[in-house]
Structure formats: structure tokens, C-alpha cells
Amino acid sequence: MQVDVENALLRNAKQVASPNCDARPAGMEAELIVVHGISLPPGEFGGPWIERLFTNALPSDVHPYFAEIGGLRVSSHLLVARDGALTQFVKFTERAWHAGESYYNGRSACNDFSIGVELEGVDTLAYEAAQYDTLAEVVAALCDAYPRLSPDRLVGHSDISPGRKTDPGPAFDWERARRCIAAACR
């Protein structure tokens, strides 16, 4: 897996452009990778709904929850499906709208300096082996492409938005993720 640095795109990912992004502040580069968990509708996997959310095309009449969140303007740089398939929504050099109100090492507005990676999942159900493998390859590729990133600068959404967010949740095996990432970065 490799990042095309010139275009800020991951070569192995399906590309679906999200309008929910903008320029990073001047001089700001990615220094942090934020792992999220998402499922739409909540607790259900597969289907087009996450992609539709990130492209502002979520139909509010398909599920009651969609009516609640249909007005959100959110995105992430990447989505890792349950089978490990990868979709990129925002170029790595742009600011994706994934973290919301957030803090890391005394700095606020983590979207300014982070790359968001959504894993299709919920807090209480184990993530799939393919997702850990894909995440590890993604982290290795990002660290190769962007010198300010490192495997040590990987956090969960709950770490940067405590009390507000819980994902990727207790079902995410951080030890397993770090082992896979260490192997991929060799």
C-alpha cells in the first residue's frame, strides 16, 4: 500500500470525494492519526449508508436515525469496511471533518492536524482481522509518506474527545492493532 504524495491519495483505495472538507490552516501538516468506529444504521454493517453520509446524500426516510443525522456535514479521510476494503473520501493534505471538538497534547481542533480513519464497527462488537490488517498497512503507508506521522501518534476518537465520544470503543483491541502496525512498519 502506498500514498501518492503528489495527489495526497492512497493508491489502493476506492476514491469517493466528500464535499465535507476544507484546507488545513496555513503551514499545518498531518501529525496525528485518529481511529473512529462507525455503523449506519447503528449496529448494522454493509450497505451504502456511510458513503452516503459522507457525501451528503443520506436519505432521511430510510431509517429513523437517518432523519436525526441527515443534516450533519461530516467526513473522514478513510473508511475501512468490515472486510478490510478501503475507501478514501478526503485528500490527506486537506482537513476532513471527523473529530469535532477535540484536544490532543494541549492542542485543540484536531481536524487541523490529523488524518481520520473510520472503521466500520461499534463499541461493543469485535472488529474484524481484515480491518486490523488494513489499518496497519494504512498507518505504515501514511508514516512513509508524511514524516510527522508515526505509529506512536495513533489515538482513538475517545482519546481526543473524552466524555463526548466513545469510539472505537472497548471492542477495539489496541494491543492487536499496535502489533499489526509494528509488523507493517518493518
Cα(first) to Cα(last) distance is 14 Å
How many strands?
12
Based on Cα principal axes, name the global outline: globular
Q: Could you say which structural class the secondary elements and strand pairing correspond to?
A: alpha/beta
The secondary-structure element order is EEEEEHHEEEEEEHEHH
What proportion of the residues is helical, as a percent range?
Answer: 10-25%
Number of helices: 5
Strand content: 15-25%
Strand order of the largest sheet: 3-7-6-11-5-12
On the 0-100 scale, what is the average pLDDT? 97
Weakly predicted, low-confidence segments = none
**Mind telling me the C-alpha Rg?**
15 Å
Give the biggest sheet.
Answer: 6 strands, mixed
Q: Could you give the topology of this structure?
A:
Blueprint lengths: L2 E2 L4 E2 L3 E2 L5 E3 L8 E7 L10 H6 L9 H6 L8 E3 L5 E3 L5 E3 L6 E2 L2 E2 L5 E7 L8 H17 L8 E3 H4 L13 H11 L2
Parallel strand pairs: 3-7, 5-11, 5-12, 6-11
Antiparallel strand pairs: 1-2, 4-8, 6-7, 9-10
